[in-house]
Amino acid sequence: MAKFKFDDDLVRSLAKLLEETGLTEIEFEAEGERIRVARSGGAVTGTAASQPQAAVAAESKAATETAEVGEEHPPGTVTSPMVGTAYTALESGAPPFVSVGDTVHEGQTVLIVEAMKTMNPVPATHGGKVVQILVENGDPVEFGQVLMVVE
Amino acid sequence: MFEKILIANRGEVALRIHRACREMGIRTVAVHSTADADAMHVRLADESVCIGPAAARGSYLNIPAILTAATITNADAIHPGVGFFSENAHFAGMVAEHDITFIGPAPEHMAIMGDKIAAKAAMKKAGLPVVPGSDGPVADEDEALKLAAKIGYPVIIKAVAGGGGRGMKVAHNDEVLRQALPITRAEAKANFGDDTLYLEKFLETPRHIEIQILADNHGNVIHLGERDCSLQRRHQKVIEETPSPALNSATRDKIGARCVKAVKKLGYHSVGTIEFLYENGKFYFIEMNTRLQVEHPISEMISGIDLAREQIRIAAGAKLDVTQKNIQLAGHAVECRINAENPKTFLPSQGAITDYHAPGGLDVRVDSALYSGYRVPPYYDSLIAKLIVRGRSRNECLMRLRRALEEFVIGGIETTIPLHQRLITETDFINGDYDIHWLENLLEPEA
Lengths: 151, 447
What we know:
Chain A is α+β, with helices and mostly antiparallel strands.
């Protein structure tokens, strides 16, 4: 069995991430190694109804970067209409549909989500300026995942 | 063996499958709707993918979404669970077309068993007893009377194009049959546009007894005995037990062997359950479920065989590692299906679970995806927990079950725990003296 190398840089950066994001726990696993960093003082699995902390911890426990599905998104966020693969350009090498800073109008195709070999254009829900693009070309995406923010 | 299995289901059965996978070192992918983002199996799975909105047709019944999720996660197999697509031959075929293994039987067998008339014909051919009947339309009164004499009264006249309990009449003698035929024909014509009728033997107080079988791709088939699922309300099972109080070991061995022979003849492979109505010492095949059943844990408790695990192993091409001779069915097990419903009115209850304490102890098992703080979503069926208890004898099992139900706490919503507590104290139940109408007859005056 390979010796688990204690990587304190990794722990420090994970701890910093906890602080910055307000999460109470991050668990990361890759290639047979797993590390979990938890902020003490917050019960992660609530046992009694009287602990309001339990409810908060449960909600902030998303260790992935996808937004909580089913929650209210500010107007202008573009979410994925289906599970599939997101493409930011029509084909590799082609220019992307939009870039950060571009102005788009409502209904303009900003991304494509591919599912079962069909390409589904994703339109901007509101006109405005592209502030954030949260996926990269070829990323797998979930239903409801926030793909882009347009203000 | 598979490296990664996508679980195309939800609730306690998805958790069950996840557990079996993890025990085999197989990675899991939990696909879920937006309403199930906080489900226990989603939290525990190695990967999770939100595939659609709360309504099942957009998520759990959305074939492209499920197949896409399998593709982007590189799953090599899909487990369909129970309900949803678990008995859908079309889905199974599409999964295979995508070079993903469907954990279940071949689509052809799913298609045959999905059609009740074809299933009956196939099982009759394979040597199983079926409900005796006309095997086709009844032309006229003379034919009907002759057939009724042959089958024996009472008989039931049914519309070939019918369903939903309509276009049916029971006749206890020739006189009633003569009168009922034209009336039923008219009713059938009015309701279904087709007045073709057929005849079947009517069973008045049958028990529902089903046989669990397992078959691999190498011709090996075994059975794990029966489950008595007679306690039903509106065709939904409420309590199941094994062994059945109505069978002795000779009867069990005989019907088990006949089922094994039939399954071998069909060439079926995977787990499966053959359901019978049982009356006056005779079995009558009604249908075969080509999937894992909700009540499978009671068979696991008395046999020690992990059915979800075996189902996965079979799908991966492995041989069954037990023979019929090695199977030991020991003790007695009962399962209580606990629903998020009012125990008297059966109105669905939803909301957040405030306190959760599952009973424990020797031979006490709870299959549930509940946890404190979990919100029971209103979009799906109301089964939220299964309490499964085993004892060395039926008596010991029931004592333990009573104690376990006392201890079970699910706060914040209404559940049918009080109903179960009541049912297990009923004299008829304690004596094992019940049939498929018993529960409804018990509850009817109070409705």
